[in-house]
Amino acid sequence: MSYLSHREMLGGLESVRVVLPGDEVMSYNPDSSGGSIFLGPGLRWEDGMVRAAKAGLLKKTSRHLYFVDTHQKRYIPQRREYVIGIVTKKKGDIYKIDIGGSEQATISFLSFENASKKTRRDLALGDLIYGQLIVANKHMEPEMVCIDAYDRAMGMGVLPAGGVMFNVSLQVAREIINPDCPFLLTLSKKVKYTVVVGMNGRVWVKAAHQNSMVALMNCILMLEYMTPDEANEKALKLLEALM
């Protein structure tokens, strides 16, 4: 993810619009003091211009993050993104993690809160891990950590047993990753649950009962082919039938 300053935005950027690869999105002056933005997936800066690298809907979040929203299912690792991975192999002090990309990520046993050689935590094959990518480029394999810059877990680490993980499109993952997502807040009024969303299109949910977790999974999957309002109505009916 790139961090750029900008002065001028082209008309229409504040509203959703369709872009194609090569389309000009906004101009940018590195010496400008007009604010800062984050460039997410599908955008590239080159020769003083931000251009689209993928076809899709150009969107902006409240935190000045711009990205191209597509129905892509294959995940392309991006630095600083939070993902859910599956432990697949141990090699010395390094674990291999499947994050859904073309290459597996790695994580050191020291990349956890309060980890040391004496207090190291052994991971089992198949464990689910929620963490952040600190290395992600075409020349190196992705590297993952479960601590922030101050060595705090901040919710990252091995996910508890008893939950269920499933895959959604990257578009749906971006829609529900916001803690204040209206759809998830509506579900929480009917069922108490915990949810973890990875930018790689993986969602993990845990509730008190198995049937509640299956219902929650089906509710979230409705967003693949329904609008949030349509899914909201269907989800409420489904959850009410369980109560």
UniProtKB/TrEMBL annotation:
The cellular location(s) given in this protein's UniProt record come to:
Cytoplasm; Nucleus, Nucleolus
Q: Which UniProt keywords apply?
A: Cytoplasm, Exosome, Nucleus, RNA-binding, rRNA processing
Sorted alphabetically, which Pfam families does this protein's record hold?
KH_6, RRP40_S1
Is Cytoplasm included in the keywords of this UniProt record?
yes
The K Homology domain extends over 163-208
Q: Which GO annotations describe the biological process of this protein?
A: CUT catabolic process; exonucleolytic trimming to generate mature 3'-end of 5.8S rRNA from tricistronic rRNA transcript (SSU-rRNA, 5.8S rRNA, LSU-rRNA); nuclear polyadenylation-dependent rRNA catabolic process; poly(A)-dependent snoRNA 3'-end processing; regulation of gene expression; TRAMP-dependent tRNA surveillance pathway; U4 snRNA 3'-end processing
Primary location class: cytoplasm
Cellular-component GO terms for this entry: cytoplasmic exosome (RNase complex); nuclear exosome (RNase complex); nucleolus
List all membrane-crossing ranges. none
Transmembrane helix is among the record's keywords: no
| GO MF annotation terms | RNA binding
Family that this chain belongs to: Belongs to the RRP40 family.
UniProt-recorded name of the protein = Ribosomal RNA-processing protein 40
Gene name on record?
A: EXOSC3_0
